[in-house]
Amino acid sequence: MLKVGVLGAGHLGKIHLRLLKQSEKYNLVGFYDADETNGNNVEAEFGYKFFNSLEALIDAVDVVDIVTPTLSHYDCAKQAIAKGKHIFIEKPITNTVEEAEHIRELLAEHNLRGQVGHVERFNPAFIAAKGDIKSPMFIESHRLAEFNPRGTDVPVVLDLMIHDIDVILSLVDSKVKNVSASGVSVISDTPDIANARIEFENGCVANLTASRISLKKMRKARFFQKDAYISVDFLEKKCEVVKMKDAPEQPGDFDMVLQNAEGVKKQIYFDNPDISDNNAILDELETFADAINNNTTPIVTLNDGTEALRVATQIINCF
């Protein structure tokens, strides 16, 4: 079992601690938190060992799980890599693209593994649908959340939209050609609602909307491609796959058939895949353990995290 330690015991850090404790692929050694009072409270309540220094925790483990505020990701990752430790780092990977590229270079130099916590890649609805998503040409995503003061230290693009940016970049096999966007600061000092349009060299267009001041939650993405429409509901963990094929010569009474102006007939049918329930955070952590143990490429690499941050930064620069 890999010895693992967690940096940061905030809301998400506590979730990581709980899941790593129950995982059969890790031995949870303990955690470090810059807030000593919070660290002592978490240790007293849950029994995880609280290390009084970041260096002491890094020295005691094989894998460092970085769940600190984004501004500290770079320094934490550098220290862990310098000590020869594999790193799991929450999204966004770092505060700037330059920092992310440097971390990526350091990891390669030390022949270590790294993974970024883009958890929607492990969402069961996305896993079920992604096999049907082939060469999408138009993508629309909505990620809406009710207001929560936690996370408002960064623009909504880094807080929420970056999930969908990463998903889209993982599916579109083409380079980004152009990015345009607009955002509005309503409550925070940084944009709380934003819309972005990403154009790819192959002609695919993605239209993304993210808000943290909505009255209801929504996390949906729709993918349109030749002869198919795929909808993924990341929140409800549901997906819908609608396909078209040449209509039979004699359609059945319940067949759905469309005819275009040229007289071509297409049959519409549903091909919804089965969705297997899972814990996405536990899965992303355990597949990282597999990548380390088997010396294979993690599912969400530091390169993936860097490119998602690069596009997010381009969007933010449009405001």
TrEMBL record:
Residue span, Gfo/Idh/MocA-like oxidoreductase N-terminal domain: 2-118
Top-level lineage group: Bacteria
Domain GFO/IDH/MocA-like oxidoreductase: 156-216
Entry-linked InterPro entries: Gfo/Idh/MocA-like_OxRdtase_N, Gfo/Idh/MocA_Oxidoreductases, GFO_IDH_MocA-like_dom, NAD(P)-bd_dom_sf
Pfam families, A to Z: GFO_IDH_MocA, GFO_IDH_MocA_C3
Gene3D superfamilies: Dihydrodipicolinate Reductase, domain 2, NAD(P)-binding Rossmann-like Domain
PANTHER family: BILIVERDIN REDUCTASE A
Designated name of the protein: Gfo/Idh/MocA family oxidoreductase
